[in-house]
Amino acid sequence: MNNSQRCKGGLITMPFIIGNEALAKMASVGLSPNMILYLIGDYRLKVVKATKIMFFWFAATNFAPLFGAFLADSYLGRFLAIAFGSIITFLGMALLWLTAMIAEARPSPLSQESATAPQLALLITCFALISIGGGGIFCSLAFGADQLNNNNNKKEERVLESFISWYIASQAVSVVFSLTAIVYIQDRFGWKLGFGVPAALMLLSTVFFFLLSHRYVKHKPHKSLLTSFAQVIVVAFKNRKLQLPPTTHHPILYHHNKDSTLIAPSHKLRFLNKACIITNNNNNSSWSVCTIEQVEELKAIIKVIPLWSSGFMLSISSSQSSFFLLQAKTMNRHITSSFQIPAGSFSVFIMISVFITAAVYDRLIIPLASKLRGKPVRISAKNRMGIGLFFCFLDLVVSAVVENIRRRKAIREGYIDNPEAVLNMSAMWLIPHNVLNGIAEAFNAIGQSEFYYTEFPRSMSSIAAALFSLGSAIGNLLASLIFSIVDDITSRKGKQSWVSDNINKGHYDKYYWVLAIMGAVNLVYYLVCNWAYGPTIEDVAGNRVHQEEEK
């Protein structure tokens, strides 16, 4: 390593990388809670159309990190991915701010017509730029780790752990700030300042990242795991006519990396094993023969797909936030006679619930259970995923019950035709939903992440991070599909749709019951997948320790 390389990276870069991500998170999260109100109020979109736009925006935002990771690994490198991502996100937010500043960008307040196609296209462009840019910024955690991986020693490992802790803490603080301060600004001072603040924060985030660009360690891009998976599938298909050896001890050799401990692939999904058979063909390119490691990495992904898909329901449930915002707008949100909680700020109770659940589980439940049993007790990551899905089901049941109470109260008070009227019902009724949603997130989301990291080889850590995000994207698309089907079926023959623009005339309670039934079915599906998956690496290690203790 030369002197210029030795001077790069290190602790001095950490505040700038963390600052970039924290400010970007603060800006992006601050836009979403009230966006449904901007679409319905200023763009005069129907609730159904506005909700679909929100679903697709959330899906794009969650899919973008996978695309960003692919570009960073294969072509751009992490520095350029974050740099371009920051600039693109800022452009999207600046453009969104201009839609609030320029009157012609929105329907005229004197007209009752919805947004024109060009106006809507401009708005969608803003959302697209913000989502695409966010996919590049997603690489910041791995980029931060690059700055500390120059030496493989204990001190460097401790610094890396500290960086990750500060990174996660900064994200949590950013989200809480967004759901309180930025949402309050939008609620109190309007969209011009409400969108201007996130744009300014994103500009500051971008400048902050570039300030120390000369000190960053910038690794060159290498082959992406997604490319590796594609190679295994293509080569296995090319070699489909080859015969597999009857046993792993057959003299046919398998291609593997140098110093690899794997001499033959596993028996599961044996068709893929044909991708690493060494043939008489002298072509050793990656698209002609793959390594055992590549094959086993793809098998690891395929094996977790059923359990991974059970997590879609959590994303479907979490994506209903726009409806809870509409509910909160019709309820009494006053804490004092002069101050009321902004409708979009109720999501902060979800974050608080996540923090408390994680802390209580780690610091109280597990130590207490271990003390009572007289030996270490730990709930596996796979089982915690199931606990989260159970609380997701409870959340949907509670949401249906609360909405039924709210709707009946609106009818009794004579507001059936006035969906904007504030009922004599406290918005605190929504907190049980937020608490249950937070508990579900704490168990399932954290459990999923830990499950992937323990089950996958270390070389697949980037995929482990992106897999949850991809699941969230698919969940958002499914939520949009379910919403459209419910709207289509319930509005036939001129009937009032369950998801009507008028929340008091609609039956959002029945819509939540449909989701609750799906949640119950999904819970059974998870139990089947859990049983079929068998013991995890974590389970095997735990059993081995238990047997040694008994001996």
Structural class: mainly alpha
CATH topology of the largest domain: Growth Hormone, Chain: A
- What is the molecular shape? globular
Number-wise, the strands total 0
Task: Give the name of the CATH architecture of the largest domain.
Answer: Up-down Bundle
Give the helix tally. 19
The protein's oligomeric status is single chain
Query: What is the average of the pLDDT values?
Result: 85
Instruction: Give the strand content.
Output: under 5%
Helix content: 55-70%
Largest sheet: none
CATH homologous superfamily title of the largest domain: MFS general substrate transporter like domains
Radius of gyration: 26 Å
CATH C-level category of the largest domain: Mainly Alpha
**How many domains is the backbone divided into?**
3
Low-confidence stretches: none
Give the N-terminus to C-terminus distance in angstroms.
49 Å
Order of helices and strands: HHHHHHHHHHHHHHHHHHH
Membrane topology: Multi-pass membrane protein
InterPro entries: MFS_trans_sf, POT_fam, PTR2_symporter_CS
Protein name: Protein NRT1/ PTR FAMILY 1.2-like
Family: Belongs to the major facilitator superfamily. Proton-dependent oligopeptide transporter (POT/PTR) (TC 2.A.17) family.
